[in-house]
Design a protein that fits this description.
Helices cover 77% and strands 0% of the residues. The N and C termini lie far apart (40 Å). By secondary structure, it is an all-alpha fold. It has three domains: 33 residues; 28 residues; 50 residues, no CATH class.
Length: 113
């Protein structure tokens, strides 16, 4: 394996990963003394949750690429099953993602157009 083979990965780390990590580290340092129940932290958490919900809704309802080949009912069902698993397994994000992905893959396999 040569350096030319690794160039795309190096560019990805330098351009994609490192600039984001600077802001994460800065946020960690600046948020160190904030009260978790303060109004600004609650507001920031609500905005972040709303943005994430919007991205998930867009991916489910207006899919592109290979995901667009999976029927809408399967995509919605996978999201619902993932959410139920999240609640049942003590609010485990990992369980929700695994169950949602499994339902999506199985539904895509059996019901793809």
């Amino acid at each position: 394996m040569t350096l030319a083979d690794l160039t795309p990965y190096l560019v990805l780390v330098i351009v994609g990963f490192l600039p984001n990590e600077v802001w994460r580290f800065l946020g960690l340092v600046l948020a160190r003394g904030l009260d978790e129940d303060s109004q600004i932290v609650v507001w920031a958490r609500a905005v972040a949750t709303a943005i994430l919900a919007g991205v998930i809704a867009k991916l489910i309802l207006f899919s592109s690429g290979a995901l667009a080949n999976i029927p809408l009912s399967v995509r919605v069902g996978a999201a619902v099953c993932g959410f139920i698993a999240f609640l049942v397994v003590k609010r485990s994000v990992f369980a929700g993602v695994i169950v949602g992905e499994a339902v999506l893959l199985l539904g895509g396999y059996f019901f793809a157009q």
